[in-house]
Amino acid sequence: MKRVMRVAGGILLAGLVVLALREIYVRVTTDEIYLIYTSDIHGHVLPEKHYDASTGLTWETGGAGSLNTYLSFLDKPYLLLDAGDIFMGTPEGALAKGGFIVKLMNDLKYEAAAAGNHEFDYGIEHFRALAGKANFPFLCCNLTNRDGSEIPFIKPYEIFDVGGHSIGVTAVIEEDLHKVLAGDTATGFSVSYASSSVQRVADELADKCDIVVVLSGLGLDGDKELASRITGVDIIAGGETHIALKKALMINGIMVCEPGWALRYAGKIKMRVGKRGLVRAEWKLAQLLSSKYPEGNFVSQRIGEYENEDYKRVNIPVGSASMWIQRYSGGPVNPMGNLIADAMRMAAGSDFAFQNEYGIRDEIAPGTVRIRDLVTVSPFGNTIVTMKLTGGELRELLEQSATREKGLLQISGLKMIFNSELPKGRKLLNVIVKDAEIDPEKEYTLATNSFLAGGGDGFVTFKKGRDIKDTAMKLLDATIEYFKNNSPVSPSKEERITDIRS
């Protein structure tokens, strides 16, 4: 027995020696560099408070100021990137229509950013002007003009030298871009398949770069699929779905990661790079806590030249909240969704109201509620549109909503029951109005936002509406009136959307 133990101990010791020698070899023959990246900043550059309903804990992040402090602590060469959607979402993001955010990114020394779908929110010409103010390129390899020609101010890729090693960076935008761009903006573009576009760039970069990185606006599921379809890529640095991945995924030998949104985190990839390229990569989320990375005056000393009269109004109080009003409660109730749909229905005097889930951009803390708090919830400038649809047409909308492809429509005045595990087209089980099943022949009045009314997020049934009228009232103004008339506001806890999956 003792002999067996001695043999086992010897084998273990030999294994440890081999591992130690390998580690020494890696350290001697490679360099350590960092890839730091953010995504979906959406203009959230100021300190913000956050709340976790499951634990009851609150904390504060410091925005761009904390990111600046975090970067100052890095002890190795690094490449700073962003995966897109940089400005739309806050009063600060609206300053110079994104110009202030670009100024901050210039001063933080970002090297590149993906062209996100929200970069087009003010139209192509504005994006062109914004890109002209950036000291970094906007990237995308699967987006061209309608005729197939390259968009001059969006590059398919860029190559960077970091610590003597070449990193090729490309980016992709969602293939269903036409569903998420308002108005006719999307008609001027052609979007190619992400996988074939990335593969073409990866093949071109194969002999030029030690590392190939894809900045992705496909969302996490899209990133997983992309990784399974391509070769020659080392890292997919994803965004769009606002998920903070604590552990990176490895798919087809490709690291897939995502750092959350709103500058709550910075993603850090610690890389060991040698003559044959990437040897090792380690993913870590850095939470940008004000307490750990003080924000200082990085933002405040730069904002003055961008302030205007509209911005000075955003701190005006309009009411109060009795508790945290969250977008996602972890259960069947979406308190903020209920609130916005109710505010819209009250303002329009309609039977029902519908709000797209992804159009609800923030939550509200208890206490005084200011205009700025409501701007971050509804930042897109949408107006309220009224129309008439039959009960059958409303079932079409809610059947599509039940797929969750673009989130669940938030509703007021009715309830829906569905089973998410049933096949597409059969998920919706019932629609209830005043304790009775909706009449498929009856015509109802409804209110929605102008984005959805135009078929946004693919909800084209809204375009079948009759007696369509744009009220010219902004959704933001409707929520302001709601708080003025109902404060202190407590969100409705009514379960309006029920998934009875087994």
Can you put this structure into words, describing what you see?
This protein is α/β, with parallel strands linked by helices. It folds into 2 domains: 29-305, Metallo-dependent phosphatases (Purple Acid Phosphatase, chain A, domain 2); 313-499, 5'-Nucleotidase, C-terminal domain (5'-nucleotidase,  domain 2), CATH 3.90.780.10. Strands 8-6-5-4-1-16-17 form a 7-stranded mixed β-sheet. A 6-stranded mixed β-sheet has the order 9-10-12-13-15-14, with helices on one face. A 5-stranded mixed β-sheet has the order 22-19-26-21-27. β5, α5 (124-133) and β6 (138-139) form a beta-alpha-beta unit. 44% of the residues are buried. The mean pLDDT is 93.
Q: How far from one another are the termini? A: 54 Å
Question: Number of DSSP helices?
Answer: 15
Placed side by side, the strands forming the largest sheet appear as 8-6-5-4-1-16-17
Helix and strand content put the structural class at alpha/beta
Largest sheet: 7 strands, mixed
CATH class of the largest domain: Alpha Beta
Output mean pLDDT: 93
Full CATH superfamily name of the largest domain: Metallo-dependent phosphatases
Count of spatially separate domains:
2
Shape: globular
Question: Regarding quaternary structure, how should these chains be classified?
Answer: single chain
